[in-house]
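Write out this protein's structure.
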Amino acid sequence: MPHPILIVEDDLTVSSIMSGYLQSEGLRVDVVSSAHGLLERVARQSFSLVLLDLGLPDEDGLALMRKLRGRTATPIMVVTARAEIDTRLIAFELGAADILVKPFDPRELRHRVLNLIRRHASHPSQPTVFELGRWRVDLGDRTVRSIDTDAQCKLTRVEFDTLVFLLHGAGRVFTRAQIIDAISSSEEPESDRAIDTLVSRLRRKLSEECDHSRLIVTVQGVGYRLELRPLQSDSGQRS
C-alpha cells in the first residue's frame, strides 16, 4: 500500500511538481495550501510524512511546527526557501526530521522522502498508542478507550490535543501559555481561565472509568503536569 504523504505548500507550481514526482514513485500524496488545511487534515487522517513549507499565507511554519508537536507523531520534512542557518537550527530543535532548501532537484526530494519513510517505518521515533492509567490513547485514530471495557471516552478536538500535548511531555510542567500555544486553533482557549476550565473538563472525563482521578496535576503558580508516564503499547509500531 502506498505511503500517505501530506504536502503543505501554497505555491501551486511547486506543489504540483512535488506531488507529481512522488506519485510517479508509487506514493500516495495529498496536498493542502495553508496551516488551517494542515491542522484540519492531521486531525482526521494519519500520514507517514508531512512536507512542510515554512512560508504559508496564514501562519508562520515554525509556529505551526510547535502546534504539531502536541498533535501528531508524524515526521516532518521542512521544504523552504529560508536558507539561513538560524531558521534551520530552530526547525531541527522543533523536531524536523529533515530540511530541504528551495530550489531543489526533484531527484534529491525523492531520495530524502524515501529515506525518511524507510527510517520511520522500521524505527518509529515515537509510539502512536499510549497506555495511561486504565486508558489507551491512540494518536492514529484519535481515540481514548478503556483498557478494561473498550468503552470510548469522547473528547473534543481541543481536549484530545491537550491530552496528547501533556502525554508527549509526561512528567514536565507546562504553563497555561505553553498549552494555549500548543493547541492553538480557531477553537483555542484565549485565557488562563479557559485553560483551567478545559483541564477540569478533561479530568472529569478521564476519571469516569479510571482509578486515577488526578492524572493531570496542578502545579501552583506554574501550570499543569501529567503525573503518570505513558507506556507504549504493543500496537505502537503502526505507521
